[in-house]
């Protein structure tokens, strides 16, 4: 996998905080910032509220919605079980 450089400007206070956190996580500053930036980006993308469906796939999507629900035995057992916090 190829990599590229991403430059970020931070003030002295922010850099000190990032360095302390990286040290606490037993990793380099670059690795810490990279990992946390990617984690944050993944969360941001997963929280997206608007989903776009291309016109060409709309009928296929509607057909999928109209299909009868499928029974999944493992989910049925899970729904019938007592939650861990109630045991």
TrEMBL record:
**Gene Ontology biological-process annotations:** regulation of DNA-templated transcription
Keyword Transmembrane assigned: no
Cite the GO molecular-function annotations of the record: DNA binding
Looking up InterPro entries in the UniProt record yields: Ribbon_hlx_hlx, TacA_1-like
What's the family? Belongs to the TacA antitoxin family.
Question: Can you name this protein?
Answer: DUF1778 domain-containing protein
* Keywords in alphabetical order: DNA-binding, Repressor, Toxin-antitoxin system, Transcription, Transcription regulation
Which organism is the protein's source? Thiothrix nivea (strain ATCC 35100 / DSM 5205 / JP2)
Q: Which domain of life is it from?
A: Bacteria
């Amino acid at each position: 996998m190829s990599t590229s450089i991403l430059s970020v400007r931070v003030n002295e206070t922010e850099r000190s905080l990032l360095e302390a956190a990286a040290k606490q996580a037993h990793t380099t500053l670059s690795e810490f910032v990279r990992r946390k930036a990617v984690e944050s980006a993944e969360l941001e993308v997963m929280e997206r509220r608007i989903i776009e469906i291309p016109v060409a796939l709309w009928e296929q999507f509607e057909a999928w919605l109209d299909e009868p629900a499928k029974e999944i035995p493992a989910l049925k057992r899970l729904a019938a079980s007592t939650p861990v916090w109630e045991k």
